[in-house]
Amino acid sequence: MKKLFSISLCVALSFTAVAQQSITLSDLWQRYSFYAGGISGLRSMNDGAHYSATTQKTIDKYSYESGEKVATLFDIASAEGLNGFDGYSFNADETAALLETETVGIYRYSSRSVVWLADFESGTAKKLRDEKVRYATYSPDGQHVAYVLGNNLYAYDIAADEHIQITNDGAFNSIINGATDWVYEEEFALVSSFWWSPDSRYIGFLRFDESNVRSFNMDVYGNKLYPNPYTFKYPKAGEDNSVVTAHLWDSENGSVRQVLDKTPYEYLPRTKWSDDRTWVIQSMNRLQNDLKLYAVDAPSGEHALLYHETDEKYLEINDELYFLEDGSFIMLSDRDGWNHLYHISAQGKVKRQITSGAFNVTSFYGIDENKRLYYQSSEINATERNIYSIRINGRSKKLLTSEKGTHRGTFTNDFSLFVNTYSAEGVPPVVTLRSNDGSIVRTLKENKRAEAALEAYTYSPKEFFTVSTPTGGDLNAWMIKPVDFDESKTYPMFMFVYGGPGRQTVENSYDAFNGMWFQMLANEYDMIVVSVDNHGTDGRSEEFKKSTYGQMGKLETRDQTEAALELAKRPYIDGDRIGIFGWSYGGYMASNCLFQSPEVFKMAVAVAPVTNWRFYDNIYTERYMGLPADNGDGYDADSPLSHVDGLEGKYLLIHGTGDDNVHVQNSMRMVEALIQADKEFQWFAYPDKNHGIFGGNTRMHLYRMMTGFIAENL
Q1: Residue 228: what pLDDT?
Q2: Contact 454, 538 (CB under 8 A)
């Protein structure tokens, strides 16, 4: 018995040791132990009964019902010269595909690829052309492929094997046809700026004239004897934008016509065809508080105002626009103080508010033949996302996903089924197939490896709660306590902040990277990790979100400071050891908190921070701050540069020198201001790294440096 007991005890201890394995930086940034993926290249197919997925060497067809592979649509083994592909897109009848190969990124979303045309029946593939092109797109009838090369727009006639050059004036840093400039890509998430008409006759496209946009110069150090100076057009707050114009190409006669040419606007952030001959173009003014939809008649080029909406502060762009056969449309608007779906008549008048209540509709998936709409919202909780359906008359609302957490849907063309990707705190993504009533048909993918890692490593689930602050009111928050938390002890508190407009850090979803780093800090360095969503963040009312208009940084810094002070009243939090970390807007916030509230925050890590909104791009900044000429005091009042004299604690400043988004200029100005204020701080620059600061061993180095700084100073 003694021997048996000893063996049993050893086994138990062994399992305990496995269950308490420590998270290391190598687990996060070398082994990616907690990574959880989806289904690569998943596309719902036309028949609604199948979906496609890719191995990057094959495109395979699967049955939704059984989950079994029923066919290989294309295999590179049958295509001479093709070694693999990065992405694919079908033609309309799914008999061919465009394959993207040798893809290289340009900025955040944009890229160039060598594109191949794959024919499924013959199993062959040929290059569209030898050069890398942008945004190759089939015409709806599958007879042409449009693309951008050298800042010009082309159409390739597949049957004739002929390339038709639609524009001729494209030039780097001057004229762009069919693609967008840097700031449209970054702030409107728009990269391709051409759209086929449903009947394939027309292409509507945007032309960007960057001639008067000032350039930003950035040295790329590389590995050569001399750095390579890279220059690109970047309009900072108050500076000139590209002149953007809208044009129509008629494939029948080859003509190109400018439209909206006598209409005043600053931005054209979205367009969409509502039928074969009507191109709907969205325009906004410079302050982005005046939105119009214009209906352009393609044959004549004439246009008419379709819809008009204004706001005292700003309106944000979204993709939630769906046209019905009678010319009416569904759109998302915050006109009642929350984001909701509205049915708008063909004359641009509100017919009906479809959804209502103290919550936001966050995505609109579409409408089925029975006039039932499908959408995602925050109705259950601001920190969660669920999927619903509702009739167009606003009745018979149905919750389709009941599990607490975050659900994201992809519907089949007939809306009979949807692929649901679900995750939550401590729950890696699970991909299921569901019917349109929400019932689960079957599981498509689980992340067993990530689930096993959560079992094997020390893990303490986030606690979601609200913290009541004296002037900021109730704020959503989460907290991670050490797994062996002892309420009789005191712990340092480390706060994670982003804090910018329309974003949240307090979300009930799975986070395989920063989330696990916070677990490591809590459990291996014996601290409490907290995040708080301040005023200006998403998930709450428009009043809450837009309260920071014209004064970014002011209320956000107040909220984070008050939240820290309220939490420090808890007996287990050491109010003398509070630190804060943020990246981008979060780096701006971490700097402000440390400088403006030195009696509260003892250390901060600021990665790639904006240090004055004058240095940032105009679309983002002016949307939330107005023009510098009209609001100069607002721009400077909560700039961290204005508060460097307040630095008393420990400050680590980090930036990538190749950051095309938040330029290293921000940190250089901060370094100079701190030097002149005679302040001690630590500063590190990553050569040629962009806003994400990654590549090779970079993330490992970055997180090891930050971890060491936090451990030493908190």
Answers
A1: 95
A2: no
For 317-343, the pLDDT digits (tens) are 999 999 999 999 999 999 999 999 999
Q: How far apart are CA 469 and CA 681, in angstroms?
A: 31
Q: 626 near 677, Cβ under 8 Å?
A: no
Instruction: Tell me the domains of the chain and their CATH numbers.
Output: 39-132 (2.40.10), 168-317 (2.140.10.30), 345-446 (2.120.10.30), 469-477+488-504+528-713 (3.40.50.1820)
The DSSP secondary structure of 440-489, one letter per residue, reads: EEEEEE--HHHHHHHHHB-----EEEEEEETTTEEEEEEEE--TT--TTS
Average pLDDT for 89-98: 97
Evaluate whether 458 touches 442 at the Cβ level (below 8 Å).
no
Are the C-beta atoms of residues 259 and 276 closer than 8 Å to each other? no
Give the span between the Cα atoms of 620 and 613, in whole angstroms: 10
Q: Kind of pairing, strands 573-583 and 603-607?
A: parallel
Asked if pLDDT for residue 699 goes beyond 70, the answer is: yes
Give me the count of residues in the chain: 714
In the predicted structure, residue 13 carries a pLDDT above the cut 50: no
Burial class of residue 414, CB neighbours in 10 A (0-12, 13-18, 19+): middle
Q: Where are the alpha helices (DSSP H) in 502-631?
A: 514-524, 542-545, 554-567, 585-596, 618-625
The two beta strands, 491-497 and 528-532, are parallel
What count of other Cβ atoms lies within 10 Å of the Cβ of residue 68?
Answer: 7
137-157 average pLDDT score: 98
Residue 516 reports pLDDT greater than 60: yes
Q: Are strands 134-138 and 144-149 parallel, antiparallel or unpaired?
A: antiparallel
Sheet-wide strand order for 58-63:
43-44, 50-54, 58-63, 69-75
